[in-house]
């Protein structure tokens, strides 16, 4: 305990304050505002609700004793235009709905406040980075982010795949069946995910069910497409074979074959879990103190970016960890990426540009690479040598591997007491879950996120867009920034753990808190995607006043019953195209946007274009702008 | 009669095949095919196999069928079969 009367181990930023008119933001920014103050509170930051209003977004001020105040601003569109931006319209215009819709029955809302949560994390992280920069001698006092910037960051890999100069992917919303894809449904109606990272358990499982090898192989090819392309066109025979068996039998067969299985749970079930209260109270990070009494932060490289001069060693594969490293690089850190001798196999996944996968390049282009084998004594020695000269070590190895390799927190702290040791995991603290691969779709299923998403989707499950890998990557980078700021302020290093399950909990915080307190979660009265004379239109009304304005703009009565009201909206919208409705409804101050279905054209939208840069493929720029 | 098949080469291995996207080669099984390829284009076997088995991050398809779900490296080839080699990584 310190003089603030709080435990600094669990509240790393106690003593800092965040002030803003959080209770008076425009309705469309309410989810982002609650994400910002919930997260700040979880980190021990004193939150001050100020009077007044933010007219076109969310403004806040982060104050750290001894530093100049840092202004944070979260807007809707990237061009600063105030009108019509909301969770739903940004999902629509950015292409996020299109990616989600590839296997979910067409462009559809995700059904969770995804962009708002992501943007809130990015906004806070930007202010933390600016504070670290100030400690190191830079003069950043302001950071701007946008919902559009957060959404495009989320789909950066898919944008790369869709705009590669050769072999670009043409995967439009609805291009695969929303039923013949994971999750699967048993004869007794249990919806569940399967997972394995190897072909052999998959082959054994289907072989045991009498499915011919050739068909099981087709299923495996479809299964492998999930992470890269957000589709998984499963042979109907596989779906049918499982639909004839009770869940208990399927689970038994999985155990025999070495395949993991997880039913899709509801948020109510999730509320019963032992790890949940801590995640709701302290956020998706677990901070463990390390060496204290370190000398004060030295002045940095004085670059243009707040983390210039800091060095990060990243030993991560796939999406979550590499994205965390990518974000730290965008903040100015020097990131050295550890790869196996011969390079990461993901480098070879088509489409390629200059011999490297564009999807891989999108997440790793700003990093240096050091090839070494951490399983060899020599490789480990090289890694320790790198870590001894670094500020951060970040990994996403399977549970237990760090200890097995003698590369755990204590091992690295021995060579570098000032090091921040960061782990971006799957399941977090609950060791009972560690037997299952902690992958995006398993965690979506277990956490309740998949069920939340399924309510608005034509499929039985979550998104095949890697919802949690992306949010988990942002959360991991945010945890690193918090730990770096704490080190700078208090001279204390340590470890920060985050997980996909923590990110999933963060995404559903508002709903979980409402359910815990016995309240019905608040849903926007209108949040849908509707056909028009040409193209789809996303409309979101966050309160009764906005519904009334929509009624006035459409000039037709709107029933209180959602299904009837949606029919009325569709009838009205048939008279014009989506672009025309977008302009017209904007004049009424409503959040409405045409849905972008083709990713190769996202850059044509002036509201999104400032987030993007066209090189060999369409690149997503840094979500932060510092001044 | 020797069995001749057409093999499509992924971009990353093309430096080993003099930039050819597709090569015609003989072999009665996938293992034999890889041996034959390696004698014509040295180094390719090392990229495909790991300790005598298919490398974990490589998939080989015979007429669109993954050999891991057939007889693996022992999968028999017929005249005119199309073999494709693709990088593969599971998980996110």
UniProtKB/TrEMBL annotation, chain A:
Q: Where is the signal peptide?
A: 1-23
What GO MF terms are annotated?
A: transferase activity
Q: Which UniProt keywords apply?
A: Signal, Transferase
Q: Which Gene3D superfamilies match?
A: Crotonobetainyl-coa:carnitine coa-transferase, domain 1, formyl-coa transferase, domain 3
Q: Which SUPFAM superfamilies does the protein's record reference?
A: CoA-transferase family III (CaiB/BaiF)
Residue spans making up a coiled coil are none
Which residue ranges run through the membrane?
none
Cited InterPro entries: CoA-transferase_III, CoA-Trfase_fam_III, CoA-Trfase_III_dom3_sf, CoA-Trfase_III_dom_1_sf
Protein known as = Crotonobetainyl-CoA:carnitine CoA-transferase CaiB
From TrEMBL, chain B:
The superkingdom listed in its UniProt entry is Bacteria
Show the SUPFAM superfamilies listed in the entry: MoaD/ThiS
Under InterPro entries, the record lists:
Beta-grasp_dom_sf, MoaD_arc-typ, Mopterin_synth/thiamin_S_b, Sulfur_Carrier/Prot_Modifier, ThiS/MoaD-like
Record-linked Pfam families? ThiS (PF02597)
Gene3D superfamilies, A to Z: 3.10.20.30
Entry protein name: MoaD family protein
